[in-house]
Structures are given as structure tokens and as C-alpha cells.
Design goal:
By secondary structure, the protein is an all-alpha fold. The protein contains 3 helices and no strands. Keywords: Membrane, Transmembrane, Transmembrane helix.
Length: 119
Amino acid sequence: MASLILSNSVPSSALHLNTRSRASFRPLQTFSSPAIRFPGGLYRWNTRGLVVRTRAGPSANSLIFAFVLPLSLLVATIFTSIKIADKLDRDYLEDLVLYQSMKELRRLYFDLRNVDSFA
């Protein structure tokens, strides 16, 4: 599995510039019209705070999809599993009765055979 790590931090070597290298990076002085100028400079962040606005609650349709639909699927699954378990129990009991009757017939058959051999 591959992973990718992204970092917004500036390497520490870029933070320690001496005065000579700082002086060599002078921005170009260009004239720009007021329509192109950005308020507060190009590289300044907006320092206004975040505004949290309240809004209306979720709609009835989204509540149905969020709660009623999954609950109905859960109820249907439980009901179906109960029906399947009852059918399996019924089939098991029928097989048990069948095997017991076969065992009883086999016992009677061997008892009759043993009685005939002694006579």
C-alpha cells in the first residue's frame, strides 16, 4: 500500500536567509490599474473571523432516508431470519420423526427375524 504525505510547512533552511540573499529578491515595480489591484496586497490572507450561520433543520424526506428506511430494512431482515429459523426447525423435527420411525421399523424387523430363528 502506498501513502502520500503532503505538508504545508516551509523547510527550515528556507526560513534562515541572510541579508545578502534577502536583498537580491526585490519584487519588480510595476504599475497596475486599480481594477487589477487586490485589496490589502496580493499575498495577504483575509483576517476576518469565521461566521457560523444557523439554518433550518433537515427536511422530512432526508429524515425518512436517514432513519426510517434503514430501520425498515433492519426489521425486514429480522422478520425474514425468524421465518427461516422456524422453517429450519420444522424441517429438522420432520427429519427427526422420520429417522426415529425408520429406527423403530428396523428394530421391529430384527426382533421378528430373531423370533423366527428360534421357532
